[in-house]
Every structure is written in C-alpha cells, then in structure tokens.
Amino acid sequence: MGGAGDISPATAFGIVESMKIGAKKVFGSESLNGLKVSVQGLGKVGSEVVKLLDKLGAKVIVCDISDEHVNKISKEYDVKVVEPDKIYEENADIFSPNALGGILNFDTLKKLKVKLVAGGANNQLESETVGDELHRKGILYLPDYVVNSVGTVYDTYRLFHNVHNHEFAIEEVGNLIRQNIQKIIEISEENEIPTYLAADRLAEERIKGAAKAGGIRIPNERRWYW
C-alpha cells in the first residue's frame, strides 16, 4: 500500500548511527571496525543491529533468553555467545541493550567495563540516579528514547509522500539522529550534566517551540500540519 513496512531495520540503523557518533567522542573515530560490542537481545531490532555491526567489522558478543534467536544469529554471523546474566561482565567497548528496560542499575553498573552505551530498549535506566552514576564514571550513555526514535521517524515519512521512498527516508533520519546525538553530547558537556538530562532539556525546548508555533511545515512542501 506504499507504507514503510517493517521499521526494525531503520530502528537498528539509528542505533548504529548513534554508536558511531558516540564512538567518535569516546574513541576518537566513528569507525566501529575492531571494537567489541555486546548486544543484549536478538529480537527484530537486536538481530538487525548485529547484522549492521558485522558489516562494519565490529567484534560482536550476543545474548538472548531465546535459544532459537541465539542459534539463528550464531549460524549467520561470527559472534561470541554468552549467557544473559554474563553480558554485563564482558570486556567490551560498547554495550547495546535491545531487550528489557531497567537493565542499567547499580548492580549491573558494577559489572560494566564499557565506555559507551547505545541501544534500542526502552527505559534502560532504572532511575535517574543511575544516569548520574554513569556520567560520574565516565561512561557515555546515549539516551534510549533518542537512539531508538529512528524507526518511528522513518515511518512518518510515508505520511508526506504518495509512495514511501526508502533511500530518501533513511538518509533524512540518518542525518537527524546524528544531529540529535551530537547536540545532546554538546549540551551535556557545556552544562556539565548527564546525557539523559541533556536529552530531556532538548526535548522540552522543542516541545515549547512547537507549542508556540501552533503548526509545522514540512521542508520542500507547502502543506501545514497541526
């Protein structure tokens, strides 16, 4: 019907693009080649994240409570498989949670050895104090609701065009997520605040701006939306 179809690949694309921006900040380069990335959850989004990371030359560590998911991924890609409760202890560079929420807590924080967290799971922080502790420990946390937004944003492009154009939409959302992540990092640094708080402030500013505008105009289009 001209729709976007399964948005999981787009969501995964946004997660990996976010990783690249985070990696540039933490490791000095956007390249994920050779970096160890632990991926928690191998559902629709997590499995796509593994696929993209494999293409980029990352060394991938995976876990999932489903043996079926694990077996499928391990047959298709060169990954290291660990038990779900051991994923936090892996000596990785990046942790990508793509399953349950609340997995970043004071217990798991003691085990993490990574320098960057970027994943698609909702509500990853058990509490804001955990976000504060991540910041204090020097672990760059890329806020979940920003990182996993690309699938939804990608899907909305079909509302403004008669036929969904994958190439156009994916390029647009790619640029958008990169800008948003970079802006959040800048706000965090300039104000010396955790990234979760920086993301909230950016979101609040945009909500206020949208309320004042009363409507928005889509670039390159003459229609307005309220």
How is this structure best described in words?
- The chain is 50% helix and 11% strand.
- It is α/β, with parallel strands linked by helices and 226 residues long.
- It has one domain (8-213): 3-Layer(aba) Sandwich (Rossmann fold).
- The chain has a 6-stranded parallel β-sheet with strand order 3-2-1-4-5-6, sandwiched between helices.
- The longest helix has 26 residues, at 166-191.
- It starts with 7 loop residues before the first helix and ends with a strand.
Lay out the secondary structure.
Layout: H1 8-27, E1 36-40, H2 44-55, E2 59-63, H3 67-76, E3 79-81, E4 94-97, H4 106-111, E5 116-117, H5 128-137, E6 140-141, H6 144-147, H7 150-156, H8 166-191, H9 195-213, E7 216-217, E8 224-225
Parallel strand pairs: 1-2, 1-4, 2-3, 4-5, 5-6
Antiparallel strand pairs: 7-8
Percent helix: 40-55%
For the record, what is the CATH homologous superfamily label? NAD(P)-binding Rossmann-like Domain
CATH topology: Rossmann fold
Separation of termini?
25 Å
| Name of the CATH class | Alpha Beta
Strand order, main sheet: write it out: 3-2-1-4-5-6
Number of domains: 1
Number of strands: 8
Q: Mean pLDDT, rounded to whole units?
A: 91
Element pattern in H and E: HEHEHEEHEHEHHHHEE
